Amino acid sequence: MSRKTKIIATLGPASSTAAQIEALARAGADVFRLNFSHGTHADHQARASAIRQVETKLGRPLGILLDLQGPKLRIGQIAAGKATLIEGQEFRLDNNPTPGDATRAYLPHPEIFAALLPGHHLLIDDGKIKLRVTHVSACEARTQVVFGGVLSDRKGVNVPDSALAVSVLTDKDKNDLAFGLALGVDWVALSFVQSANDVKELRKLVQHRAGIIAKLEKPQALQCLDEIVAEADAVMVARGDLGVEMPPEDVPILQRRIVRACRAAGKPVVVATQMLESMITQATPTRAEASDVATAVYDGVDAVMLSAESASGDYPVQAVSMMARIITQVEADPLQRQTMRAAIPVRQAASAGAIGAAVRCIADVVKVCATVTYTSSGATALRVAHERPESMILGLSPKHATVRRLSLVWGVKPLLTKDAESVEEMVDTAERAAHAMGYVLPGQTLVVVAGMPFGTPGSTNLLRLVAIPGANLAIA
After folding, report:
1. Which CATH class is domain 6-70+168-338?
2. How does pLDDT run across 353-375, given as a tens digit for each residue?
3. Residue 273 is among the residues annotated as catalytic for this protein
């Protein structure tokens, strides 16, 4: 009830049934990720249906995140199935589709040849093999092996030094997107974002049917970070590919930079990849992994994500439970609030920004038991969460899509409710909701935030303080 940092759990073979999904939700999962790099549409449809069943059973909103695969760059086949590349040798990538060997390989991506320059690097198989380009033309790239190793069929290729003139939305992604939107997903994650234009391209297809998460895993994205943050609805620090394309020692710095940019802009931010990696095969994490989760919580991220740990690991429920325990313990540390509040939010020069700032100031003067936001689009709850108040935030909305989307946002407990027709009805509903959730304490203050007229998105302009009497409220 008191945990503010949210948990995203990826579903997969270890977590596909309604019973398994319910166990993950009870352990602490707030949002479920459907990874469209794996599985069929039928698999994802069954999982989405199970999530909604569990949501109804538990009586609380659960978010669904569709993670698009994005463009996958791969070499072709190797004649003997594999070949060994030796440091210092020459190696060629070309447009010849015949199987490769220890001297060359097929690269069916002309956009890579068009973007490469001498001195650029290519990474194969998650960086296990590193090549330096010595000469490039429209149909081949000659390279020198920097790091050697065993090269096998269809290994992935990363191009860290070049911005590729290719859409981040493949035909597969567009098909998956249409399918996911028809399912009613709440968030769509866009892989391999290079610029704000990539997000705009997806926005034309999604419109307002889901929130858009920009996954930052390309060095080029860091060159226009603020523009991407402004265009996206949320951001994910995708440390998998980012850790391949950037030196490992740079990743913690970039993670903090991205988090700070999102915190300043008031956009939800997720830290993902290898958070509790060892729990794929063992029941407890390493101390370093626990510290990794804690670091994200100290920085005030909105959510942390489990990938293979919950999708295909041996201990999916234990991984979610462990993450929830780490979050709860860290959030109880007074130093966490000090560290989190070191990021100063940038406030809008409008009534919504002023009210958000006022909520934070009120909590410094009186004891606030909860802040209740009435929100149609979710903007009011986001604005309050932007300030990271000490009390919990109840996000009340009459829209299923809004409360499900808010399940990703720091400190917000979303709750479906009917629309209020007057300020008095709004305050009464707020009190009853806070009481039902266990947040009402006699003698404390309830903060109610809304927009007038009711139901108008982006019109946050009302703040009311409600003194809680000693008597209990009857719950309607």
Report:
1. alpha beta
2. 788 888 888 887 888 889 999 98
3. yes
